[in-house]
Design brief:
Bound molecules: glycine
Low-confidence stretches: none
Number of domains: 1
Structural class: alpha+beta
Oligomer: single chain
Largest sheet: 9 strands, mixed
Number of strands: 11
Distance between the termini: 30 Å
CATH architecture: 2-Layer Sandwich
Shape: globular
């Protein structure tokens, strides 16, 4: 069994071995960004790098970012207590490319890390890609790259912008994304249990664990309430892997709150509550 700390370290070391610079989590209150109240993703601290406004010494980075999603564009507050996988405060593991690699390598890294490093059962993994809309076409490249690394075609599903087009807020860097979902049920080989309709569906049997965002656009407001997508200077990559959700899988439990990252806090609060 891997502890949460071991999973975090494995992730960061894996991406360091693949040329990424380890960057510290930024504070929960974003500096110099009036569009955001709290840090809601690992990419926040790199926003200006994606936009080409800021230059760094590295083209690849990885981090474990403290995030708070309790309002705004990404609001998990209403889900807490209803599902086993939502928190408002959580840690997001991420690898980033600033005009360096793009979709193909992002997908190769994600598959390799989950299947070969963490030894997740690939029969439990599902993959989603953007189905396209009137501005951006369907992500056939991502479909092809998933199939190339070994994902069965029938497990690569298309979804709309609600699930598969990521933006940090109303404005800013954004792009189509591809998510990895994990089936937590008892029999990965039973198609009546490990089912397509559970991906982005009800319940906790299948949960999203990792989102790979293919950053290609800057969403700007052209007049109040009207937005337009402008291409970024260089296609880039922003990913977010939920540490607590990954711990659920690696520790064989059913809820984020049963992992070693959160259970000791709950146990401590319970002890205080009964006055021990
Ligand atoms: N920035 C990727 C995510 O939050 O899912």
């Amino acid at each position: 069994m891997l502890t949460g700390n071991e999973i975090r370290e494995k992730f960061l070391q894996y991406f360091e071995r693949h040329g990424h610079t380890r960057v510290r989590s930024s504070p929960l209150l974003p500096a110099n960004d009036p569009t955001l109240l709290f840090t809601n993703a690992g990419m926040n601290q790199f926003k200006d790098v994606f936009l080409g406004i800021e230059k760094r010494e590295y083209g690849r980075a990885c981090s474990s970012q403290k995030c708070l999603r309790a309002g705004g564009k990404h609001n998990d507050l209403d889900e807490v207590g209803k599902t086993a996988r939502h928190q408002t405060f959580f840690e997001m593991l991420g690898n980033f490319s600033f005009g360096d690699y793009f979709k193909e390598d992002a997908i190769k890294f994600a598959w390799d890390f989950l299947v070969n490093e963490l030894k997740m059962d690939s029969r439990r993994l599902w993959f989603t890609v953007f189905e396209g809309d009137d501005q951006v076409g369907p992500d056939e490249d991502a479909e092809r790259f998933w199939a190339q690394v070994g994902a069965p075609r029938e497990r690569i599903l298309r979804f709309s912008g609600k699930d598969n087009f990521w933006q940090m807020g109303e404005t800013g860097p954004c792009g189509p994304c591809s998510e990895i979902h994990y089936y937590l049920g008892d029999d990965p080989q039973d198609p009546t249990k490990n089912r397509v309709d559970l991906v982005n569906g009800p319940g906790d049997t299948t949960m999203e664990i990792w989102n790979l965002v293919f950053m290609q656009y800057n969403r700007i407001e052209i007049e109040p309430g009207k937005y337009k997508l402008e291409p970024l200077p260089k296609p880039s990559v922003d990913t977010g892997l939920g540490l607590e959700r990954t711990a659920v899988i690696m520790q064989g439990v059913k809820s984020n709150y049963e992992t070693d990252l959160l259970k000791p806090i709950i146990d401590f609060a319970a002890e205080l509550a009964v006055g021990k």
